[in-house]
Amino acid sequence: MKIIMLGAPGAGKGTQAKKIAEKYGIPHISTGDIFRANIKGGTELGMKAKSYMDQGQLVPDEVTIGMLLDRISQADCENGYVLDGFPRTIPQAESLTASLKERGEKMDYAIDVDVPDEAIVTRMGGRRACLGCGATYHIVFNSTKVEGICDACGQELVLRDDDKPETVQKRLTVYHDQTQPLIDYYKNEGILHTVDGTQDLNEVFKDIVNILGV
Ligand code: AP5
Ligand code: MG
Questions:
Q1: How far is the CA of 8 from the centre of ligand 1 (A)?
Q2: Which domains, and CATH codes, for the chain?
Q3: Residue 198 near residue 119, CB atoms below 8 Å
């Protein structure tokens, strides 16, 4: 099963992708998490990505596309995967479609987690992220057992550098300009499904499971 998560920054793509990955036993691949792991590790890729991410801009397609195509060609992706944060531009979507086509494959589902901008801005300030395993929490809506510590891996949680209100605004503008057109792209491919992302996160997940089947 090959799934793409679409949605604005903070819509809950990461939260839902993690639950999908656990339920269906497929890898959760987040380009944002890959970049953040590289920044933490001080790699060249991380240094390149950081300057864009801190400004709420997209990392250039030349860097991102190769990295993602490489990741999905690894052995653990044989039975599918859930993509979170990729594709984010029409050229990224076209590269993905072309690369899969070469192997006689295609994406099965594109799930748009729909949340209006006003709700996003209030959510982001309360988000806490684990740089160790990529888990995402919220101080009110999805809290950890021990404050500030990841339930899954025990690392300390952080407020992401790009979650400052002015950077969130910039990311929303970039989303509307460059990423929202993908909704029509996947509608035309006949695989688009929309879920109401303003519901409680377990209700959102129920709607997704209804789409994917048990
Ligand atoms: P990325 O890490 O992908 O960030 P993003 O798309 O901005 O999305 P977020 O991770 O902010 O939000 P999310 O939808 O995953 O929400 P979450 O589940 O955490 O990318 C970061 C940057 O990397 C980009 O800006 C760009 O620079 C670069 N990048 C990455 N991919 C790229 C690409 N393909 N091309 C170019 N550049 C790329 O939820 C948000 C919060 O809300 C959490 O606190 C959560 O607990 C809470 N929450 C979730 N669901 C609910 C709910 N239903 N009700 C209440 N609260 C909820
Ligand atoms: Mg995320």
A1: 7
A2: 2-26+79-209 (3.40.50.300)
A3: yes
